[in-house]
Fold this sequence. Notes:
The chain is α/β, with parallel strands linked by helices. The chain folds into 3 domains: 4-98, Gyrase A, domain 2 (2-Layer Sandwich), CATH 3.30.1360.120; 122-206 and 384-442, tRNA modification GTPase MnmE domain 2 (Four Helix Bundle (Hemerythrin (Met), subunit A)), CATH 1.20.120; 210-373, Rossmann fold (3-Layer(aba) Sandwich). Helix content is 48%, strand content 17%. It is built from 15 helices and 11 strands. The chain has helices at residues 16-23, 81-93, 103-110, 116-127, 131-141, 144-168, 177-209, 223-231, 274-289, 305-311, 335-341, 358-373, 385-407, 410-428, 434-442; strands at residues 4-12, 24-25, 39-46, 52-61, 72-79, 211-216, 249-255, 258-264, 292-298, 319-325, 346-349. Helix 10 (305-311) links the parallel strand 9 and strand 10 (319-325). The longest helix is centred in the middle third of the chain and has 33 residues, at 177-209. The chain is flat and about 95 Å long. The protein starts with a strand and ends in a 6-residue tail after the last helix. It binds guanosine-5'-triphosphate (GTP) and magnesium ion. Guanosine-5'-triphosphate (GTP) binds at residues 217, 219-225, 238-240, 242-245, 266-267, 325-326, 328-329, 351-353.
Amino acid sequence: MGEGGIGIVRMSGPDAFRIARKIFFTSKSNQPDFPRSHFLYHGYIVDGQGDPIDEVLLSFMKAPHTYTREDTVEINCHSGVFTLRLILDLTIKNGARLAEPGEFTRRAFLNGRIDLSRAESILHVIRARSAEGVKQAALNLQGRLYRKTTGIRDSIITTLARVDAVIDFPEDVEADLLFFKQVKDELEAISRTLQELIATAERGRAYREGIDTAIVGRPNVGKSSLLNALLRQQRAIVHDMPGTTRDLLEGYLLIGGYPLRLIDTAGIHDTANPVEQIGITRTKEAVAAARLLLVVLDGSQPLQKADEAVMDLVAEEHKLIIVVNKKDLKPLLNISALEQRFPGVKVVRTAAIAGEGIQLLEESIVELLDQSFTSSGEPAQLLSMRHEIAAKEALVSVKNAIEACESRPLEFVSLELREAWHKLGEITGDTVDDQLLDKIFSEFCIGK
Length: 448
Ligand SMILES: Nc1nc2c(ncn2[C@@H]2O[C@H](COP(=O)(O)OP(=O)(O)OP(=O)(O)O)[C@@H](O)[C@H]2O)c(=O)[nH]1
Ligand SMILES: [Mg+2]
């Protein structure tokens, strides 16, 4: 509640019209069709003594064509804290009660107007922190996630029905090799679709939280110089003494719409220096937590043992770009050997001190992120942690079912498929309990 041009007091429920007619005075009330649904009436809100409180525009909206699918009244009054308070109090005196957080949206869900994924995307629209965030939430509001999830659930039910037929009528339906192959093929397809859906969560999270990007390499290859060049700022100390950087150093950068959290790290090598050793331990932790790795090598020297140790840290879940720095010096690094070791990984040559190749590096980063986030060619759909967890749990069950096809009795396949179907129902709200609903809607503001 605050000061503004227009404030809205909204009522939903079977008594909404009755209460509104008690506190609203309009010259149109003697018209035969009064109150017309979805029609805006000019008039006054009057208190118990008949004294006017505010001049308003009021609409009566008859169920079911309303936000909650119940009779709804909206009073467009002037938005002064006292005006709003007085009008609110009048409605309460006449039988209304204050809504709980998210109660309007909860009723819309309970009355079947929207599914849970749409209800939650309303919150995501309200909370969005970027134009891209609004766009993604709006797509879910239109039912994109609902349709996708329902599609997967339908496929699960189809396969489940085939499996259950064999379990229930073993004399009539034969579970031969062909049957198992077909079931497995269907489940593999479901698993792929689910994985694509889960991949969209990563993009959503990347936009919400940023992408942890570690700059790693052995000492003196130019990691700190690269950080400075990317940030266009002398952020980190650069020195020709190996082991200059000890602590992790952060900088934020927005490229191609992706928020990156760049982390400059201590050079990795064998050292007896205890302070450097602590720095290297921190580097390894940062690498493990990072999504994107920029592995920096010195292009003016052949590959060394310490470089190998760095490359051994690259794990499957990392997105990777190899930066061959110091391209202004005589090239002595065998790049084709690198390309063989990391097929498909982009190798970018830079001269960090002079700022050369930095733009190309940025373009390569954007290209890599674009590729990995749009594998399914669709914009993000899983926008909340809750959706992501439900989808991942469903995937585990589908994978268990595939495994069970190999060795276990069919009952296991059936059980796992039921579980997957149930988990996905938590996204659309088909299989949620009151406790979960309380938790979800408590995050809404009052009046939404
Ligand atoms: N010629 C040339 N020298 C560079 C380039 N980039 C960095 N250097 C030099 O390499 C030395 C090490 O640079 P840093 O950026 O401190 O290297 P680092 O990888 O952060 O080193 P540590 O923090 O010790 O692990 C410095 O003397 C830089 O001036 C480059 O592109 N070309
Ligand atoms: Mg450094």
